[in-house]
Amino acid sequence: MFEGARKQRFKLTFVILGVSVLVLVISFAYGTWARAQRESETVPRLAADWLVKSVRQFQRKTGQFPDDFMQLEDERIWKHPTVPDFGPTKRILVHANYYYVYAKSNPLTCTVWAIPSGPNREEGSTHFLVITPTAIRRWKGPALSRSEIDNIASEPTSNLLITLGMTEQPIIDASEKKKSAGVFGGF
To answer: The whole model's pTM is what?
Structure first.
């Protein structure tokens, strides 16, 4: 009788050990996954395709580009439940760890700076777009420092773009009625 009780305890010990190892493995896997999720939320994700589509939709609807981001809300192009803070000039948007600065040059031309922000901003690229109804000129470069951000202009010169390390990308011609993967090749 004594041996039967001993065997029972021995089996129970292995069951508890197995459950403990299983809980340990699941806890480690969840912790690793949760850490990766937190880190991926801080990586800048460019939303320039969405922004270009929105301002072009406004332009098709009204015949000119918007003066500021608030007009996109007013015309129901953007339908946010609560209107985001577009800054005092209504031309600044922070979305997915990117800082967007919008400017209207004339009724048929606007510019957008897309500057990575956040703790992992060095992993993103700075983009400058000149948007017209028929084409998009774009430049790409490294993440800008705080001092460089203070020096940007809504209509920069070629020298300033070169100084910032920006290189011109191929022009996207919207007059060709081809479906493309987007402004940045599907990103």
So the answer is: 0.77
